[in-house]
Amino acid sequence: MPGRSRATGVFAYGAAAGLAVDLVLGDPRRGHPVAAFGRAAAAVERRLHHDHRGWGALHAAVCAGSAVALGALAARAVRDRPAASAALTAASVWAVVGGTTLGREARAIGGALAAGDLEAARERLPHLCGRDPQSLDGPATARAVVESVAENTSDAVVGALFWGAVAGVPGLVGFRAVNTLDAMVGHTSPRYRRFGWASARLDDLAGWPGARLTAVLAAVAGGNPRGAVRAWRADAPKHPSPNAGPVEASFAGALGVRLGGTLSYGGRVEHRPVLNGAGRAVEVADIERAVALSRRVTALALVVCAGGRLITGAVGRRERGRRGDA
Hints:
By secondary structure, this protein is mainly α. It has helices at about 1-25, 35-50, 55-75, 80-95, 100-115, 120-125, 140-185, 195-220, 225-235, 245-255, 285-325, and strands at about 255-260, 260-265, 270, 280.
């Protein structure tokens, strides 16, 4: 029993340590594991690419499955050593979350906008999202940054912590692998419309719980819970993404701003629904507010996910004890 008790605390200690390292260092500048996975996935794609959903599903299964298997093997190798297991969890959390780098990039764009340097802001925007920067003026750029901070809080932080709490290191690396595959092949370009379908749907499925948790935590941490929930309920279903909709709507309501509207991706114009239409237009200062909200959501997500893992472990031990007594 004592060994199992220590094991249930591994995720809590490891996740806290990993987020602390991310807070201090941000993403690794060289040799980022996610970049290495991307190169491997691209190599597999060159072998498997056909304009067919079945081949795309195979690509997703090979790439994501391999990441999960490697995570499981690593976790198994240290499972009897709590300190090593916590260290592996910390390293995995640091590798897969991107909250600090997200905030730095958002603030850099906000700083350029505040200085009146729209060209510098446009130049940095692709580091954060896939919008066409040349089509955006200052207010539209600020809005794009706030939307990206909201969505990536779920994709780059909360979703990973959720799956880490559920499945440990394999859950952490598996979620990040799925999210990366979606970014690589999940869009609706002619090359990936069929091949990327499975990766996009898998990302929708994996991101579903983290997106709802992010929306709830944004409502709790944003200072306007009623406005966040109202925007989420009224506007999220109109969004084309089942996961970005709740997160962006909740952030919009929490911050009191209006998100959504017309945008451009890869030369393709999209008319997105307006989120929190009663809010005001996004201003440059709202970028810092969005980053601060993202950090509060991250802290709450750690508490919720680590606490949930500890509570689940305690309940499991109690049930095993009851069965043993019987």
